[in-house]
Amino acid sequence: MRRKLAAGNWKMHGLLADLSQISALNADHPDPATDILICPPTTLIVPACAAINGGAVQIGAQDCHARASGAFTGDLSAVMLKDAGATAVIVGHSERRDAHEESSEDVRAKSKAAHAAGLTAIICLGESLAQREAANTLDIIAGQLSISVPDTAVAANTVIAYEPCWAIGSGLTPTPAQIGEVHDFIRARLTTRFGEAEANGMRLLYGGSVKPGNAAEIFEVSNVDGALVGGASLKAEDFTPIINALK
Ligand code: PEP
User: Fold this and answer.
1) CA of residue 208 to ligand 1 center, whole Å
2) Which of 12, 105, 155, 220 is the most buried (most CB within 10 A)?
3) Which H helix or E strand runs over 24?
4) Is 209 annotated as a binding residue?
5) Active site annotation includes 100
6) Pocket of ligand 1, candidates 9, 95, 179, 224: which has the most ligand atoms within 8 Å of its Cβ, to mutate?
7) How big is the CA angle at 136 (ends 131 and 142), to the nearest 5 degrees?
8) Confidence tier at 31 by pLDDT (50, 70, 90)
9) Which residues contact 217 (CB under 8 A, 6 or more apart)?
10) Is the whole model's pTM more than 0.90, yes or no?
11) ipTM (interface pTM)
12) What domains appear along the chain, each with residue ranges and CATH number?
């Protein structure tokens, strides 16, 4: 049985004062039925870990470099993120694929680095609106999946997040049938590549405009094991109903 996961991606939002949102989640869910992960900006990883003080909420990062150390000004390695207290790292988010021109090969290298450091890699995939309208969604997902996920992936260290680019921050969401088609496809591809035992253990998250009002309907969809949530994860009062919808 896969444990459900509610993961929040704070992107470039959050100052020290906002740690109160993480503390509130931690206090409200002392023994949650689902896993709860917040990926704040990197500056908040250490104080966020201190704020949860061994509680149930886990802290993750939003990106990592593919190398463990070196002359890479401004970058952070997976080893450093683990050292700071992170348990997971998002890789291949569409905002990184677009704005930083990260390829699926880059995402695979970063995922491998995350695995080597002992972090769970949350590997993001998703089609653009033009690709969906051209009926290319499954081809795009197949390509991104096969290249972005490294051979080091096992159920315990890998989460796949299906995030259609056109749904992120837009208020638009695919229909449940569209989400189900992609999630079932991802599960089948993972099974072919990694075998049933590992593939059945890997969690598949949906991401893109998940809100308190649509979470329950999305979580009914087959092979949806949780959500990667942007805007609605910033405030505990918005994220809590999403967490509760996963139960
Ligand atoms: C995201 O950033 O991964 C995301 C899904 O954002 P939002 O929930 O705001 O659409």
Assistant:
1) 5
2) 155
3) helix 19-28
4) yes
5) no
6) 9
7) 110
8) confident
9) 176
10) yes
11) 0.97
12) 5-245 (3.20.20.70)
